[in-house]
Amino acid sequence: MISLTPESPEKSTNNSIIYNQWTQLILAMTGMIMIANLQYAWTLFVPELQKGFNASRAAVQLAFSLFIALESWGQPIAGFFIDRYSPRLLLTIASFMVGIGWTAMGLVKTLNGLYIAYSLAGIGAAFIYSGAVASGVRWFEPSRRGLASGLVSAAFGSGAALFIPFIASALKNQGYKMAFVSTGIFQSILIILAAQLMRVPPKKDSGTGKSAGTQQHHFTTVEMFKTLHFWLIYIMFLFIVTGGMVVTAQTKPFGQDAGIPSNIIVLAATINTIANGAGRIFWGIVSDKLGRYQTMFLAFTLNGLAMALVPYLGKNPFMFVFLFAMIMFTWGELYALFPAVNADIFGTKYAATNYGFMYSAKGVGGIIGSFVAALVAQLSGWSPVFFTGAVMSILAGCGALVLLRMPKPVPPDKKVNI
């Protein structure tokens, strides 16, 4: 009988290829690539689903809101299990949820069926995302943590670029049903294979590493909640994630409203995913050199400026592609920087659970960026949508400067009562 078993790092197998940190990084990236379509290829399906279900854009985008909510709000639960149990069985189950959910989206007959199928895929994606990110920060030392988390998150951010040309062709020639079914089955199989080889890092000998006096405290989730740092980081995450959710969900709808040719929209969607992934690697490396918070300020501010220009310049095909790519290039790094900041401040032992709660802000941002943005655009046009996103991004950048000047939180056992 299959049962969950507590994670038990091996001590004697650290010379094995499987227990190599780069092997584990590649496996984590594979899982991320295979769930990338769930978020970043969605925009291509929206007009086709509107026709197929004879539904409004807002009604179809509600499915995306539900996916983002469950994929993000499921992270704390996923993180709890990932922190405590072997990832293999958990990620295997999650891969079936992703495959069944995404495939079923091409088979359901009603909007409610679409909502349920996309939600199931979202829950599975939560476990895969949480396991992959935790692997990235656990297997690498702090000096390479930005690079590792950048590569893992880049796989999620740019993975859809491998599938978008195929999906666009399938949508044109075979319809959205075949596009969902074929990619759903393929993604599920590869995640299952990768999951069988994923491991937790071997335990280090007690005599190595930092001395006991300088060892980092690993904050539990309850301890983390009691710090001001967490709540500032959570607000920053919410503010910066919202703008990118607008681009992720609304690239094709905005492009159609702006009169952008369909081939340019597909090109933009492809470049968006590449820019998204490249930004995660680039800013992750920069953060290891420049500093996490300085990098956040620079990237988030540039993101806000690009968003503010969309209402003025976004109707030009070239500027449409350029500005949306710039938004994604300066947005995707949040998924590389926040996991690293989480591990830097709160430790790695409970990294999956703690980051899961930070990541839950994406659920709120997803609702604002998809469903709410579609309603606002329908009632008032696109300008309020992008201007609001610009202000939120710049405020997130300012929050990074505040975080830079705050001392690290004091562990409960080190606090002195006066």
TrEMBL record:
Stored Pfam families: MFS_1
Keyword Membrane: yes
Main localization (coarse): membrane
Stored PROSITE patterns: MFS (PS50850)
Residues that span the membrane, as ranges: 21-42, 62-82, 89-108, 114-134, 146-167, 179-198, 228-248, 260-283, 295-313, 319-338, 359-379, 385-404
UniProt KW Ligase keyword: no
Membrane topology value: Multi-pass membrane protein
Domain Major facilitator superfamily (MFS) profile intervals: 23-408
InterPro entries named among the record's database cross-references: MFS (IPR011701), MFS_dom (IPR020846), MFS_Riboflavin_Transporter (IPR052983), MFS_trans_sf (IPR036259), Oxa/Form_antiport (IPR026355)
Name of the molecule in the record: Oxalate:formate antiporter
Species in which this protein is naturally found: Thermovenabulum gondwanense
Gene: oxlT
